[in-house]
Design goal:
By secondary structure, this protein is an alpha+beta fold. It has 2 domains: 29 residues; 105 residues, Beta Barrel (OB fold (Dihydrolipoamide Acetyltransferase, E2P)), CATH 2.40.50. The protein contains 5 helices and 5 strands. Strands 1-2-3-5-4 form a 5-stranded mixed barrel. It is globular, with a radius of gyration of 20 Å. It starts with a helix and ends with a strand.
Length: 136
């Protein structure tokens, strides 16, 4: 009887270290194309429910930088928003970046980036706002 928990522990440890436990989760990350496809395939009510399931999900996408805009806030300083074209859909992804990143990014350059979905707006077009974004 005492050996069964040991075997179970070894089996779980092997699953975790081989990537088996986390591999399925990484494959489940939504693509921008899937969001677009679902927007046009679902009713408004279905898509509204679907959007809520995506908030907080980590994604890794790539796209072409359209622009970085500066928004001067009187009390809070300047914030910078990167606007990125993903899947040829202009502009489709928005994220706040630091001043250093804003100065480093180049218009029309293609970047891989990752972050968490903060919000999806679907009025007339699809706009995804990401948070905790890092550019590779």
């Amino acid at each position: 009887m005492k050996r069964q928990p040991i075997y179970l522990l070894v089996a779980v440890f092997g699953l975790v270290t081989s990537g088996g436990l986390f591999a399925a989760h990484a494959q489940d990350a939504v693509t921008f194309g899937q969001i677009l496809k679902n927007r046009w395939a679902m009713t408004d009510a279905q898509f509204a429910a679907y959007q809520k399931t995506l908030v907080g999900q980590e994604v890794r996408w790539s796209g072409k930088l359209s622009d970085v805009t500066a928004d001067d806030r009187w009390f809070f300083g300047t914030s910078y928003t990167a606007r990125i074209i993903v899947a040829g859909y202009e502009p489709s992804v928005f994220c706040t970046v630091s001043s250093d990143v804003a100065q480093r990014l180049q218009r029309n350059a293609t970047y891989a980036f990752s972050g968490k979905i903060q919000q999806i707006d679907s009025f007339l077009r699809i706009f995804v706002t990401l948070e905790d974004v890092t550019f590779e």
